[in-house]
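Researcher: Here's a chain I'd like modeled. Treat it as a single chain, no partners, no ligands.
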Amino acid sequence: MGFALLVPLPLQSRKISLSRLKSLNERENKNQIMAKVDDTTKRFWNKAIVSFLKYYPVRIKNVGLEQEVARRIVWDFKDGKAYEEVAQMTAKHLKDMFGDRVKDIVFSCVPASTTEKNELRYKNFSARVCELSGAVDGYQHVSITGERLAVHEHRKDKEKTVSKVKIIDFDEAFFKGKDVLCFDDILTTGNSWATYGSQLEQLGANIVGGFFLGKTTYKII
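Model: Modeled as a single isolated chain. Structure tokens:
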């Protein structure tokens, strides 16, 4: 592997405009994300991806009303509140994407971090999406068992904590040979979706794409 020799520039050449500095910071954020992406995740980024909202993490300050509303929708959904609007959006996109074939598509949500959160967030939501769209509800065919470590970003500050969360178990016979559309609340690196989807692929499922309520965004346009 080669290396680059960094040579200090003359003082007058070091001046960087604020817009240029902002661009460099955004590129650094993107590079940090991509550095965490493995080959499986890269492969999943090439699948069909639909995100409904732009989600701005709490560390992004001075967001406008539109961004605040989107952020609140995501938070409320995570808390199991007001899922009807999200179910309507999801069902519409399912029918638009697959048409009459939607009846053969299994709708499967990437499990939340605990059994309680998963049921609160996805049980009624998944059932409603499938009721509206005609897709097959995969919720009952995934259960959460065991524990793993997860990193959580707090909403009100930049602090992160590490905690034990559940791992998932699948109904192998159900998923084998099925076309599966995955759903997750937030898309950032795509690691969670790719990990979940690749496990389903190992069971013989075909992952046709991923829907996401919000896609993490760092630039306000």
